[in-house]
Structure formats: structure tokens, C-alpha cells
Amino acid sequence: MRLIWPLNCAGCGECDVHLCKKCEEVIKTPTLRLVVDKDCNYPIYAAFSYTAAIRRIMLAFKDGGRFDMLAYIRYAVRKMTSNLLTLNELKFENIGCVPAPSSFSSLKRRQMLQTGHLASAIVSQLRAEHVDAIELDILKQHTKKKQVNYSGEQRSKNKSGSVQLKISKAMTLSSQQRTRNIILVDDIITTGSTTRECIRVLENAGFRVLCVIVLCTTGS
Ligand SMILES: [Zn+2]
User: How many angstroms does the Cα of residue 52 sit away from the middle of ligand 1?
Assistant: First the structure.
């Protein structure tokens, strides 16, 4: 008998399970898509299409307090990384995984940087497959204006300057760390404007960006 909190599948709502068999199968089988964004010069690899089950699991994890989804999501990210290595898409040594930043209010609300968990899962898998990799948490978000009620184009414009380098952290990087090949890691890409802004900041700081790894994109 469950007295305190009813447990439901984060993907479909089925009672008394963290994830039902069907939704577990979905999250454990990343489909790996190459997303084409004409404004982004780098390949964007998405683990999933934004299906109803994936959308619900992501939202439950991001905003619904379902930290029990973390292990499943880490599993998916590691599997995806392994697939990319098999496909020879990450054929680089000396990799730095940079989590896309969250706003201060999101960090406070969620009490975690989700993208940091994703970056650490990627690093774990790369190391397990003998690729030299570290996590580089060097970006922060600086929100100038509220993003609500803006069109995609306006959002894009407002993003300029919204991402900054964590100077104190970046300054302490060794020369070897500064020459790392960067994988930018995000959870969900909507318009892609934050992604492009992160890349711009990293490039301006002299980093070499390889690709973007994301759980899913909401666009086409
Ligand atoms: Zn389910």
C-alpha cells in the first residue's frame, strides 16, 4: 500500500511503476537523429524524436521533480554516445563536454543543472571506451529580458549576450584543457537560439566546437 505519494509511469501515467515496460523500452532505445539547423555550422545529434512519451518523461524530469528518471536518461545518453563512437562520429581525443547553462531561477527551482548530468554521462561513456574526456562547466546564463511572448526571431535577437563564459573557471583552465574539442550538451532544443549563442561564446573564447548532443528537439 502506498500511503504518501502515488507513483505513476512518467511516460504514460500507468499506476505503481516509475516507468512501465513500454515507456522503459522507449527511453532505453535512443533513436539517434542528426538534426539539420541551417543556422548552426555543427552537427546536432538528438537522442530522441519528441514523441508524446519522451515529452512527458522529459517534462517530469525537468519540472516535475521526477529525479527517478535520471538513471534512465543517463543510460540513454551513454548508449547514444557509444553509438556515436561506433559510427566514428566522435573520432577525437581530448574532448571537453560543456553543459548548456540554465537561468539562475531554473537552477534554483530545479536544484540541479540537468545538462550537467547529461555531460557527465557522456564523459563516463567516453572514458569507458578509452577516450580522454572531461566535463567543462564553463558557461552561465545571463537573462536580460524575459523570453516569454516573443517570436522565434525576436527570441534569437534577445539571446545575444544571454550566455557568458564563467570567467573565473575559464581562467583556471590549463592550456591542455583550453585546447579540448568541445561537445556542447543540452537537454531540449526549441528554437536553437541558445545553442547558437553558446557556440558563439565558446568560439570567441578560442574553443574548438565539434558537435552538439541533445536529448531531443521540439522543432522539425
Ligand atoms: Zn508508461
Answer: 11
